[in-house]
Design a protein that fits this description.
InterPro entries: BBE, FAD-bd_PCMH, FAD-bd_PCMH-like_sf, FAD-bd_PCMH_sub1, FAD-bd_PCMH_sub2, FAD-linked_Oxidoreductase, Oxid_FAD_bind_N, Oxy_OxRdtase_FAD_BS. It comes from Streptomyces melanogenes. This is FAD-binding oxidoreductase. The chain has three domains: about 15-80, Uridine Diphospho-n-acetylenolpyruvylglucosamine Reductase, domain 2, CATH 3.30.43.10; about 90-200 and about 435-445, 2-Layer Sandwich (Uridine Diphospho-n-acetylenolpyruvylglucosamine Reductase, domain 3); about 200-415, Vanillyl-alcohol Oxidase, Chain A, domain 3, CATH 3.40.462. The longest helix is centred in the last third of the chain and has 16 residues, at about 380-395. The protein has helices at about 20-25, 45-60, 105-115, 130-135, 145, 175-185, 215-225, 270-280, 320-330, 380-395, 420, 425-440, and strands spanning about 15, 35, 40, 60-65, 75, 80, 90, 95-100, 155-160, 165-170, 190-195, 200-210, 235-240, 255-265, 285, 290-295, 310-315, 340-345, 370-375, 405. By secondary structure, it is α+β, with helices and mostly antiparallel strands. The protein binds flavin-adenine dinucleotide. Flavin-adenine dinucleotide binds near residues 71 and 139.
Length: about 450
């Protein structure tokens, strides 16, 4: 398809042959490719409307990309709206609400919020886009204290499939507002999002790293410890074969390590007391726990800031016992033949409570999230990812009927199946989302990411 001459976009428009096309479609995720027919480098809501109308008029799918952390497998054809030019955040210190533009990464929001002693419910890394993360739930560093990020959305400006720009709130459009808070990418392109911040300028946090011979002990101790910790404590454990690269701290470089990640919203003394049993479990090769401003919170996970190739799946569990957890190490540790990172996050606390205005986030009752992340070769594509999935499924088979569902945010790379998508939501909510999709996007224009097909089309 040629670049249409009449598209009313202030921002640049690219066809496959245009100079700059490859840079415009480049994503953080390197494992998969995308070759849209047309890319609209949106500068504001009018450009987004023009792109939506173009796609709808030609019966093409419309995809959105902010940072490309969530590129969902190989993507071909259609119209892509890139939002990197729509970057900005304004904080109202009176209400504690941040208005976040479509292409804003968390790092910008964290910096702006900190000027007012506030923090967003962001995740492990600064580079992830705030909108993509939030509209699918958003399980952040402080999730057990403050809940899912999606529950803090108070309003959105979004362009729906009919090409209209809507101001969506709980009062104006209760159904769309509910759907947006958990399944947002299926219902439109958000041009700006209002989210409630929290008064948490500092935290006690960081990582405890245990060498290979202590990995199983660390996992057992962490798991038992989660049974009694308060809601101020959000934590996870990573079973990580650290690469032998200069960016990795020397004590863990090239080594299989248990990495316990801590974010505590109480005082430093309370945080220190809470982690004492973990520190006592064996010699730490690296201990980075400290009082820190929230602006430094990406030091907890130390996710790589540079683009990578990865394929990640997950399951939510209602419980996890020590014996089963030990089997995870056998199945994924050195010598297992599976080259992957496993992460187990402790859920519950505020995440388990329903917000005053309901949202479509699923499986609030889950106590643990188990993620398996495989490094894949750049450009590996859907076929390689599908083969990796067999290894992931061997891990999940350990959990039997303890599995309650899947967290959509952590379906990273593709292909994502209809069955996986359905498992992201509570059963009745999935049916309601599909019915709403038939109302707001009957032609399934927004089908390029974690798609919930309209009820009529199934
Ligand atoms: C290194 C890394 C760390 C992560 N850490 C966390 C974490 O701590 N907690 C967590 O919950 N998740 C985490 N994630 C997952 C992340 O939240 C999702 O991948 C999310 O989709 C990324 O959003 P993005 O905008 O950065 O990516 P993109 O690939 O640009 O967007 C992904 C999708 O989000 C939707 N989207 C983006 N912008 C808009 C918009 N303006 N309107 C409507 N839909 C939009 C679209 O459907 C798009 O396809 C992490 C992912 C990575 C790779």
């Amino acid at each position: 398809m040629n670049v249409p001459a009449d598209i009313a976009s202030e921002g640049p428009v690219f066809g496959r042959e245009s100079a700059g096309y490859d840079d415009e479609v480049a994503a953080y995720q390197l494992g998969f490719g995308q070759r849209p027919d047309v890319v609209v480098g949106a500068t504001g809501p009018d450009d987004v409307r023009a792109a939506v109308r173009l796609a709808a008029g030609r019966g093409l799918p419309l995809a959105v990309q902010s940072t490309g952390h969530g590129l969902p497998g190989d993507r071909a054809g259609g119209v892509l709206v890139t939002t990197a030019r729509m970057r900005g955040v304004e904080v109202d210190p009176g209400t504690g609400i941040a208005r976040i533009q479509a292409g804003t990464p968390w790092g910008d929001v964290i910096r702006e919020a900190a000027l007012h002693g506030l923090a967003p419910l962001s995740g492990s890394t600064l580079g992830v886009g705030a909108i993509g993360y939030t509209v699918e739930g958003g399980i952040g560093l402080l999730a057990r204290t403050y809940g899912f990020a999606a529950d803090r959305i108070t309003a959105a400006e979004m362009v729906t499939a009919d090409g209209e720009l809507r101001h969506v709130t709980a009062e104006s459009d209760p159904d769309l507002f509910w759907a947006l808070r958990g399944a947002g990418g299926n219902f439109g392109v958000v041009t700006s999002l209002d989210v409630e911040l929290v008064r948490q300028p500092r935290i006690y946090g960081g990582g405890l790293y245990f060498a290979e011979q202590y990995v199983t002990d660390a996992l057992r101790t962490w798991l038992e410890w989660t049974a009694d910790v308060g809601e101020e404590m959000t934590s996870s454990i990573g079973l990580v074969p650290f690469p032998d690269k200069p960016v990795v701290p020397v004590p863990v470089r090239g080594r299989y390590t248990a990495h316990i990640r801590i974010a505590h919203t109480g005082s430093t003394a309370e945080g220190e007391a809470a982690v004492a049993p973990l520190r006592a479990l064996g010699p730490c090769v690296l201990d980075t726990l400290t009082d820190m401003p929230y602006t430094e919170s990406d030091a907890i996970y130390r996710d790589p800031p540079t683009p990578m190739a990865y394929y990640g799946t997950n399951v939510l569990l209602d419980d996890l016992d020590v014996a089963t957890a030990a089997r995870i190490v056998e199945l994924t540790g050195p010598g297992s033949g599976l080259n992957c990172v496993v992460q187990i996050s402790h859920l519950g606390g505020a995440m388990a409570r329903r917000p005053a205005a309901p949202s479509s986030v699923g499986h609030r009752d889950a106590r643990f999230l188990v993620r398996v992340l495989s490094r894949v070769a750049p450009g590996a594509g859907d076929a390689v990812a599908a083969a990796e999935r067999a290894g992931h499924e061997r891990v999940y088979a350990l959990f039997g009927d303890r599995v309650t569902g899947i967290a959509p945010n952590f379906l990273l790379g593709g292909p994502v199946t209809a069955e996986q998508l359905r498992a992201c939501y509570d059963e009745a909510d999935y049916e309601r989302l599909a019915a709403l999709k038939a109302v707001y996007d009957p032609g399934n224009l927004f089908r390029s990411y974690h798609n919930i097909p309209p009820a009529d089309a199934r």
